[in-house]
Every structure is written in C-alpha cells, then in structure tokens.
Amino acid sequence: MDRAALADFLRRRREALRPADVGLAPSARRRTPGLRREEVAALTGMSVDYYTRLEQRRGPQPSEQMLASLARALRLTVDERDHLYRLAGHNVPRRTPADTHVAPALLRVLDRLDDSPALILSSLGEVLVANRLATAIFGDHSRHTGWARSDIYRWFTDPASRGIYPPEDHQRQARSMVASLRAAHGASGPRSRAGELVRVLRAESDEFRELWERHEVAQRFADHKVLLHPEVGPIEVDCQALFTEDQSQALLVLTPAPGSEAEDKIRLLAVLGHEKFPATAGE
User: Which of 15, 22, 85, 117 could form a disulfide with 133 if both were Cys (CB 3.0 to 4.6 A apart)?
Assistant: First the structure.
C-alpha cells in the first residue's frame, strides 16, 4: 500500500469533482474546490474520520469493497479504478463484460435524474446503483448477495420477487429476462458469469429451462410496465434504456405520462420516501 500516493490521488480526484457531478446541489458558501471530505464519505458509506485518515496518509488499508465504493463515488474510469486498487495494495479486478464497476457516463446521467425513477443494471440484471425514487418503488437491492443480486435469478427462484408485476405480465416478463440473458450469454460465452447463471437456473427452474430452449434473444431498449407498489398501488410507466458501448450495463429510466395518476403517485413517493413505503423486491 502506497499511502502517500493513495492520499494524493484521492485528494486530487475529490477536488476535480463538482457537486453537480455527483448529484449534489451547489453551495454558495463553498470555499474549497471540488467535493468536501464529508461528501465523499457520505457517498461511499464510510465515516468522515476514516476517509480523512486516508487523505492524511495514516489510514488502514481499505478493503476491496471500500475501494469499489470510492471508485463509484469519485466517478473513476476503469483505468483510474485499477490505479486506485494498485495504490491500496490490492489486485486489480478482472475486466470482463460482467464487470460491475459502474460506467461514469451512466452515473453522470443518473445523478441528474431527480424526478424520475432510474437505476443502472448489469447485463445479468444486477442493480448496481439506483436513485431514491427507484429504491422507493423497487426496494433496496443492496441487501442481496451472491446470485440473489440478479433480478433474473430471483425471478425464477423466489416467487415473492414477482409481486411487483401484475400476474398477467409475468409470462412476458419471464420471456424478456431469458431473452436478455441469452444476449449476454452470446456476447460473453458459456464460460462467463452469464454461462454460470444459465447453468444454475437450468438446474433450479423448470420454467427457465423451457424458456431457454426457445432461443429467444433480445435487449430491452423500450418497454411499457405496470408496477404494483404496496402503498400507492399500480404505477404505469414507460421504460427507456441507455446502454454502454459494450452493452454490459444499462441505465433504465421510468417515466409516467404527463398529468397522469402515475405521475402523481411518483411525486407522492418523492415526498414521503422509501422509509415510509418499503417496496417489494425485483424489477
């Protein structure tokens, strides 16, 4: 671990960011360039004291999980993320199509979406990051571990995950998920994480096995959904997806029709927050 270089890198990356770059409101009283230390700490979920010690060359070695959070909070590119890992004395994460390092370009768009539910998904249906409104609708996915982080896996192994969709939409949603996984599998091959997920689901779900044999392939670029929220009821939205160049991640944005009842419900969720309305899991 190169404490001096790590401290300097963190400080310079922090100072290079503006509050708007990470979805924070600008402050007229800001006297120093870039983000404050407490803002970076809040974005990563660490204490201000812990982050301050890192910048003062006296902190303990950060874990890989903490480094991933720092890379996301500081909007690092993949090359910058790898450099961060090396400075902290860790092996660099493998670069694969299933890399869960969130693309900074997608994060910049997500940061500016205050009035629309939005989330960034991996090609395996893992929620990498979600804004406040998306969490209010879909629930907090950070509690999931292992394959349960994948919406596709939960859909075929946990019946409760389907509760956010009306029963009449379940078959269409199942086919869409399998077609999306087929596309990821084709892009990365049978020895990839997509291939492993396919093998796991073929062993655990008869429904998945039957749909997989249809060989349907599709990426979800646009869709229309009805989402069932336990407190505000059905929410009808249009979905648009913005993909990274390699198709490994997608920013999914949900928008109601202007002046609709769904728009009023989303505004209500924005005011009351997900603390009052714990949503069901799954997309």
Answer: 117
